[in-house]
Design brief:
Distance between the termini: 23 Å
CATH architecture of the largest domain: 3-Layer(aba) Sandwich
Structural class: alpha/beta
CATH topology of the largest domain: Rossmann fold
CATH class of the largest domain: Alpha Beta
Radius of gyration: 22 Å
Strand content: 25-35%
Number of domains: 2
Strand order of the largest sheet: 1-4-3-2-5-6
Order of helices and strands: EEHEHHEHHEHEEEHHEHEEEEEH
Length: about 300
C-alpha cells in the first residue's frame, strides 16, 4: 500500500483512482461499505482504490470539548487499510486552515492533486468543507462538473439502527464486546508492548503477558475471552484488567492458553471476543485460583466454539 502524509505529497498517478473519503475511526462495517463501493468502481474501470482520511479527527480541532475517544490508533487504521487491499492511503493533516476550505475548494484540491480521480465514495451523511456546508448532494453536483462519479453509501444497520463509531464506543464501554465485534465486522482490539509486571499470575499458576495498551476506549474491568496476536501468530487466551493492576497506563494481563515463552518487549494485539465476567474480590488465594481455573475452562470452551478473531 502506498502511503502519503498529505494530499500535497501525492505523486502523479497513471491509473484511474476511486477514492473512499472519511475519518474511518474503527474501520467498522459502515466504513467498509464506503470502501467497497470505491473498490467496485475501481474494478469496473481497471483503476486503483485509495483511501483519504484525516488526522487528527476533525472534531478534535473544531470542537475539542466534544472530542470523542479514539477507537483505534492511526497505526492500526493504516494496518487495517493495508490488510483490506487499499492501493493508496492519504492521511491528510486536519488544521484550522484546512477546515476553512470551502467545499468547492476542497474538491478542486482533490482534482488538482489526483488528476486521474475517477470516483469518490463517502457515507450518505458525510459533511465536508467550511462549516460543514458540503454534503453528498453537493459532492455529486461537483463530481459532474469535474468529471468524477460519486457514490454515497447507505448506512449499514445493526438491530435496525445505523452502525456508527459512537454506538461501538458505547458497546465497548458497557463491556458488550460481542456487539462491538458484530458492528465492527471483526473483534475490537487493543495493542501495546509487553512489559514486566508483579508476576502475580505466574505465582498463581497462570502466567500472563502484561500489555500496556495504547488505546483510548477500554472495556470495563473484568475477564474476557480473547485472541492475542504477535509476529504473525494468533493464540487464544484470557485477558484481565481490574483493581489489582491500577496505574497511569492501562495494563491488561493476558494468559495465553497452552503457550510457553518470553514475550517481553514484543507488541501484542488483544482481540476481544466476549466478556466472561466482571471483576470481583475473593476471600482467599485458594478461592481466587479456583475461580481462575473455572474462567480459563469457560474461555477455552467459548473460543473452541468460535475461533474467529
Amino acid at each position: 500500500m502506498k502511503t502519503f502524509p498529505s494530499l500535497s505529497a501525492v505523486p502523479a498517478v497513471d491509473r484511474p483512482v476511486s477514492l473512499a473519503v472519511g475519518v474511518f475511526d474503527g474501520f467498522h462495517r459502515g466504513h467498509q461499505q464506503v470502501i467497497a463501493e470505491a473498490e467496485a468502481h475501481a474494478r469496473r474501470h481497471d483503476g486503483e482504490t485509495w483511501l483519504l482520511t484525516f488526522e487528527p479527527n476533525p472534531v478534535e480541532v473544531l470542537h475539542p470539548e466534544r472530542r470523542p475517544p479514539r477507537l483505534m490508533t492511526p497505526t492500526l487504521r493504516r494496518r487495517l487499510a493495508a490488510a483490506h487491499g487499499i492501493d493508496g492511503y492519504i492521511e491528510q493533516p486536519f488544521t484550522l486552515d484546512f477546515a476553512h476550505l470551502a467545499p468547492e475548494a476542497f474538491v478542486e484540491q482533490l482534482q488538482d492533486r489526483i488528476p486521474t480521480l475517477a470516483a469518490v465514495s463517502v457515507g450518505a451523511n458525510w459533511r465536508f468543507g467550511f462549516q460543514a456546508r458540503g454534503d453528498a448532494n453537493l459532492l455529486q453536483e461537483l463530481g459532474k462538473k469535474h468529471g468524477f462519479a460519486v457514490s454515497a453509501a447507505k448506512p449499514v444497520l445493526h438491530e435496525g439502527i445505523p452502525i456508527s463509531s459512537t454506538r461501538i464506543r458505547k458497546a465497548i464501554l458497557a463491556g458488550d464486546v460481542a456487539a462491538a465485534r458484530t458492528m465492527l465486522g471483526r473483534a475490537y482490539s487493543l495493542d501495546g508492548p509487553v512489559v514486566h509486571g508483579k508476576k502475580a499470575g505466574r505465582i498463581l499458576g497462570f502466567p500472563t503477558a502484561n500489555v500496556a495498551v495504547e488505546n483510548e476506549v477500554l472495556p470495563p474491568d473484568g475477564i474476557y475471552a480473547v485472541h492475542a496476536s504477535f509476529d504473525g501468530t494468533s493464540l487464544p487466551g484470557a485477558a484481565y484488567r481490574g483493581k489489582s493492576n491500577p496505574g497511569d497506563s492501562p495494563l491488561y494481563e493476558v494468559h495465553l492458553l497452552d503457550f510457553q515463552g518470553d514475550l517481553y518487549g514484543r507488541q501484542l494485539e488483544i482481540h476481544f471476543q466476549e466478556r466472561q465476567r466482571e471483576d470481583r474480590r475473593f476471600s482467599s488465594t485458594e478461592a481466587l485460583i479456583e475461580q481462575i481455573r473455572l474462567d480459563v475452562a469457560g474461555i477455552r470452551a467459548r473460543l473452541s466454539a468460535d475461533s474467529s478473531v
